[in-house]
């Protein structure tokens, strides 16, 4: 039976490779997704090196404030004639307006108001807005402390509690929190790259009427399904490796040190990431082959399998947006367990062998369930007519 199985695998792989558009569509994700992440992080890292530019209107009314901002490295420039339009068009992030009565209120010891013209709906301006707001609060606190000293009052009385934050994290752990998406995209690479060959192996052959001649051969349905599944798994493994290599090269070229992060994507770390994500390639192939066997047409299979791509994305998105505390039961949940193990690896923490075995075992057990269901579908006559 081994030679029959190998013949089926060879036939499915050959069919998959011949469809060049499908191959290019499948492997465009492993190429462009990591590059997109790298471009975003590189833009963020580069932006941190740029000095803050602040347009100011009425700077002559507050020379001390202007001097303070310049000492903080802010590049000041004159505001345009129509600052509202400049803010609305996104030309400027912030315009600081200092009224004419600022100097009089300041000398009299009264609260002197300044105005920040901003547009909080501009996402790219939020960083500059926050920085300007922080600097103004720091200057206000500095002036307030000087006024208390002039009146013989210790400024420390205004701070009855001193908070010392002891940060136990390190640059590698901070980077892991930001780059939890690495595991998500590596896993997603397996699902995307095996998708087309799984659809073609079931729904595609049924539409082309080539499935019926294949089923009438004296070949076990189990051998037939396993052969098609192994071909999809092969594409999935290639997707994992390709995505991981491109991700490592792209992330390694980013100056994350400017963001206070550090991530060690060495060959050893890459190998462990592959071991963590490897059990998901069989799972992806089995799930997609089951969906393609159950659906009634090629387009329907393509739709449902495309929707199923949200499954490998959900754990990574949840952990990136709302980090959760690791619990023992998570290692028994496919997809979630791989995300948790990958996050621990990127933080430099040790991975227990039992946790890995539990994660891989539960994933492969679910794979076996999907394969059994697919064999059952292939054993039914209605499979030939696209009715599941």
How does this model look, in words?
- The protein has 2 domains: 2-43 and 172-385, no CATH class; 51-166, abc type-2 transporter like domain (abc type-2 transporter like fold).
- The protein is mainly alpha-helical and 388 residues long.
- 65% of the residues lie in helices and 4% in strands.
- It has a 4-stranded mixed β-sheet with strand order 2-1-3-4.
- The longest helix has 32 residues, at 221-252.
- It starts with a helix and ends in a 10-residue tail after the last helix.
- The protein is elongated, with a radius of gyration of 30 Å.
- It has helices spanning 2-18, 20-49, 63-71, 83-88, 102-107, 126-150, 171-178, 181-207, 211-215, 221-252, 267-277, 280-294, 298-308, 310-321, 336-346, 353-378; strands at 53-57, 75-78, 95-97, 115-117.
- The chain contains 16 helices and 4 strands.
Which percent band covers the strand fraction? Answer: under 5%
**Helical proportion?**
55-70%
Q: How would the global form be characterised? A: elongated
- Helix/strand-derived class? mainly alpha
Number of domains: 2
Low-confidence stretches: none
Query: What is the H-and-E element order?
Result: HHEHEHEHEHHHHHHHHHHH
Give the strand tally. Answer: 4
Number of helices: 16
- Rg over CA atoms: 30 Å
First-last Cα distance = 27 Å
What is the spatial order of strands in the main beta sheet? 2-1-3-4
Largest sheet: 4 strands, mixed
How would you state the average pLDDT, rounded? 80
């Amino acid at each position: 039976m081994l030679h029959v199985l190998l013949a089926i695998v060879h036939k499915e792989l050959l069919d998959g490779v011949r469809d060049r558009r499908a191959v290019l569509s499948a492997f465009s994700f492993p190429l462009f997704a990591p590059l997109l992440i790298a471009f975003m992080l590189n833009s963020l890292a580069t932006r941190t090196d740029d000095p803050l530019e602040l347009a100011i209107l009425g700077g002559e009314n507050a020379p001390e404030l202007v001097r303070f901002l310049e000492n903080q490295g802010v590049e000041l420039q004159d505001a345009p004639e129509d600052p509202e339009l400049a803010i609305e068009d996104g030309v400027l992030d912030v315009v600081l307006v200092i009224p004419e009565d600022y100097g009089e209120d300041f000398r009299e010891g009264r609260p002197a108001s300044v105005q920040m013209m901003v547009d909080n709906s501009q996402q790219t301006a939020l960083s500059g807005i926050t920085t300007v707001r922080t600097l103004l609060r720091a200057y206000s606190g500095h002036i307030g402390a000087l006024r208390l000293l002039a009146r013989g009052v210790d400024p420390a009385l205004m701070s009855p509690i001193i908070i010392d934050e002891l940060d136990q994290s390190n640059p590698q752990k901070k980077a892991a929190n930001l780059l939890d998406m690495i595991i998500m995209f590596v896993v997603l690479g397996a699902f995307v790259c095996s998708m087309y060959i799984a659809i073609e192996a079931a729904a595609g052959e049924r539409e082309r009427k080539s499935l019926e001649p294949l089923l009438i051969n004296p070949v076990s349905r189990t051998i037939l399904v396993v052969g098609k599944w192994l071909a999809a798994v092969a594409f999935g493994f290639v997707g994992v490796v390709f995505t991981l290599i491109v991700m490592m090269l792209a992330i390694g070229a980013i100056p994350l040190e400017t963001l206070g992060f550090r991530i060690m994507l060495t060959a050893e770390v890459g190998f462990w990431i592959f071991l963590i994500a490897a059990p998901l390639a069989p799972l992806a192939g089995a799930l997609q082959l089951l969906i393609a066997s159950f659906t009634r047409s090629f387009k329907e299979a393509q739709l449902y399998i495309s929707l199923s791509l949200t499954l490998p994305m959900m754990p990574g998105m949840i952990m990136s947006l709302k980090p959760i505390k690791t619990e023992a039961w998570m290692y028994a949940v496919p997809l979630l367990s791989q995300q948790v193990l990958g996050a621990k690896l990127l933080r430099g923490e040790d991975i227990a062998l039992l946790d890995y075995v539990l994660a891989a075992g539960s994933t492969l057990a679910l794979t076996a369930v999907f394969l059994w269901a697919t064999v059952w579908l292939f054993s039914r006559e209605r499979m030939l007519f696209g009715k599941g």
